Fold these 4 entries.
Entry 1:
Amino acid sequence: MQDLAILFNVIIILLMLFNTYVFQVGLVAILLERFRALLMLSALYLTSSIILHAWFMNLRWLNPNRYIWTDSLQALFLFQRTASVWYYYLYKRTAEYLGDPRLYEDSPWLREVFARSRQ
């Protein structure tokens, strides 16, 4: 369920990016530059979550009456939980930034960014 929720969160962020005026004008590079960290961390967090959950399920499936906790599983668990903190921070920051009206209308800021990108 958690993996599906992460996937839906990524889809929601992408839909929000597609609805901006900046994207519709064709300045996708500006959006990708601005939200690169979130997109890369989302992919990393989703991948680590899927691997961690599959590993847990595999260990439990092979021996349901024994609790198995290996060092490598603990390292992956620690990495996945650390990535989750950064993921949720960047997700909230991105959601807040996508509420900026400058992204949804023509503005002097957008014209300035467009002029800099053409040079």
Entry 2:
Amino acid sequence: DTINHQKLMHRMQWYIADKEILQLIWNFLNAGVLDGEIIRSTPQGAQQGSPLSPLLANVYLDQLDKELEKRGHRFIRYADDFIVLVQSERAAQRVQESVTQFLEGKLRLTVNQEKSQIVKAHQLEYLGFRLRKDKGK
């Protein structure tokens, strides 16, 4: 919801050379959203639920992937939802704090603290899926 359009477009230019495609993406970002009968401008963020939104998130958050890989973390990410797997609650707290600093500092995104959580793997629900441990397997 808070992605900076200029930073996103700068990142998109690393992957897309076609100026017409880049202009189409820019127009999409700035098209606004329908709020009742009024079109509200969108100076930041990407419209959630659109087919383009996960693609834009994947391109922009590639920087996060590289940072997590550099730090040696195991993680799962789909669009703007991700999990970082660690061994202890203390490590989870450190990672959550440092990843939040990276996202809010370097990428200038806002982390939703209500959705962010530290849980044991068997308590985790991710994109509608829950991990569980089968006894004897």
Entry 3:
Amino acid sequence: MIPVTAVDVTDAESLVIEVLRSGKLAQGALVRQLEEGFAEGTGTRHAVAVNNGTTALVAALQALGIGPGDEVITSPFTFIATLNAILSTGATARFADLDAEHLTVDPDGVAAAITPRTAALLPVHLYGQPADMDALTALAADHGLHLVEDAAQAFGATYRGAPVGSFGLGCFSLYATKNITTGEGGMITTDDGGLADRLRLLRNHGMRAHYSYAIPGHNYRMSELHAALGIPQLARREELVAARRHNAAALSKGLAGTPGLILPGDAPGCEHAWHQYTVRLTGDATLTRDGLARALAERGVETGIHYPRLVFDHDCYRTHPRVAGTSLDDVPVAAAAARQVLSLPVHHALTGEQVRVIVTAVREALGA
């Protein structure tokens, strides 16, 4: 089976052993080294490591003072962590529909969702595709709103030459399946020294010095072991992203013209990070999305569905008092995407032969 993702911790063994032998397992020098590399990779002055990507979102919102009575506008088509982070602060989540071509949040929909209670915009760089940051940055400035980027899937992506995570508070996931992984981990990037200082306090129980507390905080720390896994990958970041872009281009070339198949691509002025290569099945396809997934599994190709439902379309959120009333009819592009999307393998470890197998399997299954 050709896997839809591949975990690569090449060259991490020596650093992991170094940490184990040192006896210093909590946040320390290796976490700082990882932060420095992440700041360099995103073109920001500061990067603050935390224990996972969800925490990155929660801490970013907390650092901005988002809380009860505030509203945060985001995408309904994302991993549930985006919504859970908003709810964790006590704020209310509002949703805007998507751009029909690239499935990132539509700025016109965001503008329509702004109310007097709106405090922040939280666009999602879905699958590694940057959202329309020019329009969203302008909206935030015009309305005096904070801007937080859910860049969990998008390390290495750029918008008009600027790395994602450099427009507002950038929130990244370093989970096992991500382009850069520490197993579990997250990172927050910013140019604002004051926010960076507050984030560092928040992640360490509010301590500025040992047993000296400046603010109420939490334990959001990353361990040295997790940082040891990520540092070697960060050194190879350009190579890893380039491999994904090469594989995505080969998939698009091979699958071009397949009836009933909408292929992903770079939005204008953007460089996709290709965390996922996600196609969409239209009514012209000879198989449903689930039918194609089964057909590819029979041919030795693993796939993924990211995501089968919109975040508010689950029983635990439908009646939640802080999930602002939205129906599937209100976000038709997002609702259609949840029925259509299927992710194919695109990771850096794919061989040229495996890419050819994937292309052949898709075309055969769809009768192309």
Entry 4:
Amino acid sequence: MSFTFDSVKEVLERQVQPRLAQHGGGVKLCDVSEEGEVRISFTGHCCTCPAQEATLNSMVSETLKNAFPQESLTLIAVNTVDDDLWNMAKTILQHKTEV
């Protein structure tokens, strides 16, 4: 399997996402560089989970290293705000301005 954004995304969606979803969380692929940097963000309950670093270093890292053994990967967690959280905040703020 070639090391591309789409192939990394596929591995994350097939192998990591279902396991994180069992806990109300998830992972989103942000970027893959030619140098092997893979930037991800956690979603849902994983955003605030105290085990986030362990999940990144064990489950996500090992899964990608097994899928792309020829690559020298650097996994980077990017702190972003989940789209669902943004939408909830917008709804609350809209409601407050209408009152």
